[in-house]
Design a protein that fits this description.
The chain is built from seven helices and five strands; from the N terminus they run H-H-E-H-E-H-E-H-H-E-E-H. The chain has helices spanning about 1-40, 45-50, 80-85, 105-110, 120-125, 130-140, 185-255, and strands at about 65-70, 95-100, 115-120, 145-150, 160-165. Helix 1 runs antiparallel to helix 7 and helix 6 packs across helix 7 (about 185-255). The longest helix has about 70 residues, at about 185-255.
Length: about 260
């Protein structure tokens, strides 16, 4: 068991390092998109911005919740922490819940919730175009609020639930207007959609890094437990062997004739 845990620990260490690099890259990407969108928004009429469905969505529409669960097992309490983040929003059957992760549908069903749609198997594959298409499908719907929920953790730290509202968006300060090429409404919709997609990608890679971190920590604990079991078994074997030797000596001594 110790050797298996050590092997899985090594494998997950590789995936964890790769996920960390991906997360750092997507943070830089999200920051660049945010700055670019702020520049674009600053050039558009305030009335147009306030009329955007991402800035002032329909109050009567349901919430959209993007829930990130694990792609597999042996990852500690990752799914429990992700579920805690989801339940903090008090979701109802009217909410539109989308799952990311191979275990998403199963975990949502365990909470008595149904996934409007789900996608899994991408934490290792990292098929970003497929993931972006999934996120854009989420953003096509009418919603009153948009949330991402997941678990976050780094090696050696306790996992914590994250429930982050990504829409409606708010913007401050509108600079002098200039003429833009193309339909301003289409420009705004694409810009804000790109920003929200970047926010979803950030949550995805944070969740991926957390899953591999927690799986690595679980394998470390499993290896430590196997070593502890080996020590306990070794002590028990030594104790049993010593008791057997003691009994044999007692039998030998008890059967000796001391009369000369």
């Amino acid at each position: 068991m110790g050797r298996i845990a050590k092997a899985l620990q090594t494998i997950n260490s590789y995936y964890m390092a790769a996920a960390k690099k991906d997360f750092e890259r997507v943070l830089a990407y999200e920051s660049a998109v945010r700055e670019t969108v702020a520049e674009i928004v600053g050039l558009l009429p305030r009335e147009l911005i306030q009329g955007s469905r991402f800035v002032r969505p329909l109050a009567s529409a349901p919430k959209v919740i993007l829930a990130f669960f694990s792609d597999g097992g042996l990852c500690g309490n990752y799914n429990d922490v992700a579920a805690e983040a989801l339940l903090s929003l008090k979701p109802t059957h009217e909410d539109l819940i989308f799952g990311v992760g191979a275990t998403a549908s199963e975990n949502l069903a365990g909470l008595g919730l149904n996934a409007r749609d789900a996608i899994g198997g991408l934490y290792q594959a990292k098929n970003t175009p497929l993931l972006v298409d999934f996120f854009l499908g989420v953003l096509e719907l009418d919603f009153s609020e948009a949330w991402v929920v997941y678990a976050t953790a780094t090696p050696g730290t306790k996992a914590r639930p994250v429930a982050e509202k990504i829409a409606p968006l708010t913007f401050e300060g509108v600079r002098e207007e200039i003429e833009l090429i193309g339909d301003p409404e289409a420009v705004l919709d694409q810009a804000l959609g790109a920003y929200l997609t970047a926010e979803m990608l950030k949550a995805f890679y944070a969740a991926a890094f957390a899953e591999f971190s927690m799986r690595w920590m679980a394998m470390v604990r499993a290896e430590d437990k196997s070593k502890e079991l080996v020590r306990e078994v070794s002590l028990q074997i030594s104790k049993t062997r010593q008791e057997r030797i003691t009994r044999e000596l007692q039998d030998v001594v008890g059967g000796m004739d001391y009369e000369w």
